[in-house]
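User: SDR family oxidoreductase, Adlercreutzia wanghongyangiae:
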Amino acid sequence: MGNRLENKVAIVAASTRGIGRATAELFAKEGAKVVVSGRNEELGVKLVESIKADGGEAMFVRTDVTVPEDMENLVAKTVEQYGTIDILVNNAGGGNSQNFVDYTVKDWNDINDLNGLSVFLGVKNVLPIMMKNGSGSIVNVTSTCVHKATWGSTIYAYAKAGVIAMTKFLATEFAEYGIRVNCVSPGVVNTDIHKEYSAEILNAMIEDIPMKRMGEPIELAYPILFMASDEASYCSGRVLDANGAWAL
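Assistant: Predicted structure for SDR family oxidoreductase:
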């Protein structure tokens, strides 16, 4: 067990699997009281049980990050249980991989809601608490595809680029309250989102990465930990790439 987040209360949105799960586990090992959230209650409860078995502190709140009432409830339950919120990780993301002409208006709305609206709702609900505290750290998970075009990811990249812009504006607007807002930008990571690609496309993407491999979720959790922790106390409005030297 470490102490980089000792006594901090951290919400990790969309944390039942992948990067979010690895982040929740790492935060707990570093001393944070972690709020696990997601739509899959079975996975969420099992993760909390695992964290507690390892000596950590955690709770699960079932949450659809695109539903305003769910995000309000997530924040309310966290404050009810732990009294405050110090860290928010907006980890939700994903989108259909297909030719642009095949996208529908529903695809547009769904992808933008999952990747963009979720960040808006998370930040909007924690800001009053962090402003009152005079401190806070928000980490938004974006994507390398914002500046590295990949097949079938146009709307996803559009939404993630918006998250980066939002991050920079929020960092400027709320710096006077002691609130930092940063991004971590993954490349190709061994999670469910990249399992949607065909083997041919995925192999081509990996071949284009100088390190010649996908990243693992824990390799993104550590950059998120850094940005969330006091070690990054003078970093705000920044994007930290973790992508195996892809798209430099």
